[in-house]
Amino acid sequence: MKLIGLLPSSNALFLDVVVVFFFFALFFFLLVASWRILGSLTGTKHLVVLENLRPAAPPPEAVPPSKELGEFTPLFVAPPPKPAAQTPGEFTRGFQAPQGPAPPASPRVGPPSIPPNTPQPGEFTQMLQAQRPAAPPDPASANATQVFATPPAMAPPNIAPHAPPQGPGEYTQMFAKPASLTFGQPPGEIQRWAEIEVFFATDREATGAASPNTFFSGNRNNGELTFGTCRVTIPRNHRLGALESPRLIKFEFAPNPQKHVVLLSVTLRSEQEFFENLSACVRSSERTDALVFIHGYNVSFADAARRTAQISYDLGFHGAPILYSWPSVASVESYAVDEATIEWTVPHLKLFLKEVATKCGAQIVHVVADSMGN
């Protein structure tokens, strides 16, 4: 067996008190700052009144306007009028209509004559000119039949049909809905938390309550071990080492499996059924190992079960997580009582560890003890 010690967890209630004290201090600071700002504004008002009581300064003497213009003023003086337009120049006369009546147009016969010195169209212009036939073809001729004939129907291209999809790819499978639904998961939605089965043995006294959080008390029983299993959920946004619980500072009043580590149920089992299920869980694991967690002082049964599931989840443990819960009072003032109770539970713990080592079939049994449970 391997023994591992863990440090005790922080108290969430102390953090809530610190946060509330911080908000009160911030409110007091804002109140004092507002008072100081109002005082400064009132002092400024008195200064303005005193400034108004001072005698007004005499107006400055009027400066006679300058008779001469500076070097910057002529830029804004209106320019002199432009002279009247003269006769059109050589370029303008080229686009003016000829004076006098136009000569009568003679009837055009044949193609227009082109002066001998007229340049021919260039290579680019000849490419863009329309190629028109001199005369329409005769419909009776073979050439016209070819021109006006209906083109034959074109056969559709020989395109191979697409192969049917083989299945979702690697990227699609990452976002696909899981094949099976876990407990507490709404149908048709993606799993939002993980569920872990924790085996437990305890010598606490049962309360008879139906709620899993108050199923066992902090009192001792008759000295016989009680066996069973419980189911605990771990949220998807779980932080390593944290035991997420409802916080008043966040206005959370009930546990939510999507946000908190929640103890869902507690099921009692006989000793024979307990070790049979434990052996099956160990055999189905990769390394055929088991982990036994022993909690410390000031811990209830519900918190111990939640902590066991959290440790198994954070370690990526694939074996069987087992909780041994001794009857801690779960109170800060009951340190002496828990110290006496841990001495009383030592024989029961030794017997249970021997049975786990011999009956569950595990190759390795990891023992994790915290605080007073070490």
Describe the protein in words.
The chain contains eight helices and nine strands. By secondary structure, it is α/β, with parallel strands linked by helices. It has a domain at 194-373. The strands form two sheets. A seven-stranded mixed sheet has the order 1-9-7-8-2-5-6, sandwiched between helices. β7, α7 (301-314) and β8 (320-325) form a beta-alpha-beta unit.
Report strand order across the widest sheet. Answer: 1-9-7-8-2-5-6
Extract low-pLDDT stretches: 1-9, 171-184
Tell me about the largest β-sheet. Answer: 7 strands, mixed
Helix content: 25-40%
Summarize the helices and strands and which ones pair or pack.
Blueprint: E1 2-6, H1 12-53, H2 90-93, H3 123-128, H4 142-148, H5 170-174, E2 193-202, E3 204-206, E4 216-220, E5 226-235, E6 262-269, H6 271-283, E7 289-294, H7 301-314, E8 320-325, H8 335-359, E9 364-370
Parallel strand pairs: 1-9, 2-8, 7-8, 7-9
Antiparallel strand pairs: 2-5, 3-4, 5-6
